[in-house]
């Protein structure tokens, strides 16, 4: 069951982060806000790594990653082989990320996606089940912990 | 100078891969097609890892990664800390991926993005320069080779 949602951003996305955190709490989820809390300039990799670790260590069931475009923080999060982060801008991708990729973190760009669209993406992400089957083998292949173990 | 473009996909994206490869050759680029070549079902992580390696080892200057949604292969590619892959569906994100993130691989979903939109994304990706400056420090932080070296 999805109960605890960790959320992190960079300075460009603190307003969207606050809006999503409040909405998720209203929806009954426990929200773990990993920052930042003020608009001072920060580096998105620091917050992406922190968020990935919260999910990979089981402190959160799912994660929401935000930056200006969503690109930088999605790259940072996916450096952690225990998580699977989908960068999305509309709910169909959020649904497919769950059905096919068992994504446990969703990334969005606060400068590109409006608040209501972001909520629709998070809603699809939180309420769609992984399909398993042939998709499981592929998801397993995303968990190779080291480059040396990846197929050439 | 960007001259050699590696391209890889899964079975869901072989038609878009062929279209982009032909167009890129017409535009004067050397295209390294890493497969697959027929529509038999394959696992996107295999092709994502292969593409990331081609770019990280310098056999290609840039990469194009395709699957049904673009999500799965973008996750696979970003497991390699020497590359930075942006999943995009429109050219603004492709431009920002270059300007802010020095992305060297672009991912797209063949079931979500039409051929002309995909070409516009690739064009922005290939013709936009990295801005450097404050963005360089953040890009450097994406290159941490091991989870142990990531900030907590």
- Widest β-sheet, arrangement of strands of chain A: 2-1-3-5-4
Helical percent range of chain A? Answer: 40-55%
What is the C-level CATH assignment of chain A? Alpha Beta
* Strand composition percent of chain A: 15-25%
What about the largest sheet of chain A? 5 strands, parallel
Largest interface: A-B, 44 and 44 residues
Based on secondary structure, the structural category of chain A is alpha/beta
Principal-axis shape of chain A equals globular
Which fold name is given in CATH as the topology of chain A?
Ribose 5-phosphate Isomerase B, Chain: A
- Would you identify the CATH architecture of chain A? 3-Layer(aba) Sandwich
Series of H and E elements of chain A:
EHEHEHEHEHH
Oligomer: homodimer
Describe, in plain words, how this protein is organized in 3D.
2 copies of one chain form a homodimer. Chain A contains 6 helices and 5 strands. In chain A, strand 4, helix 4 (91-101) and strand 5 (105-109) form a beta-alpha-beta unit. The first copy, chain A, has helices at 14-26, 44-56, 71-77, 91-101, 115-127, 134-141; strands at residues 4-8, 30-33, 62-67, 85-87, 105-109. Chain A has a single domain, classed as Sugar-phosphate isomerase, RpiB/LacA/LacB (Ribose 5-phosphate Isomerase B, Chain: A). Chain A is an alpha/beta fold. In chain A, 43% of the residues lie in helices and 15% in strands. In chain A, strands 2-1-3-5-4 form a 5-stranded parallel β-sheet, sandwiched between helices.
């Amino acid at each position: 069951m999805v109960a605890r949602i960790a959320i992190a951003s960079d300075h460009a996305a603190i307003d969207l982060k606050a809006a999503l955190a409040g909405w998720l709490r209203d929806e009954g989820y426990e929200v773990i806000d990993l920052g930042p809390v003020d608009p001072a300039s920060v580096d998105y990799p620091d917050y992406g790594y922190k968020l990935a670790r919260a999910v990979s260590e089981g402190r959160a069931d799912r994660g929401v990653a935000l930056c200006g475009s969503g690109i930088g923080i999605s790259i940072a999060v996916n450096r952690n082989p225990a998580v699977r982060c989908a960068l999305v801008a509309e709910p169909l991708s959020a649904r497919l990320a769950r059905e096919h990729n068992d994504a446990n973190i969703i990334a969005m760009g606060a400068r590109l996606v409006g608040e209501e669209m972001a909520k629709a993406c998070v809603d699809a992400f939180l309420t769609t089940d992984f399909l398993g089957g042939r998709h499981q083998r592929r998801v397993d292949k995303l968990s190779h912990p080291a480059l040396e173990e990846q197929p050439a």
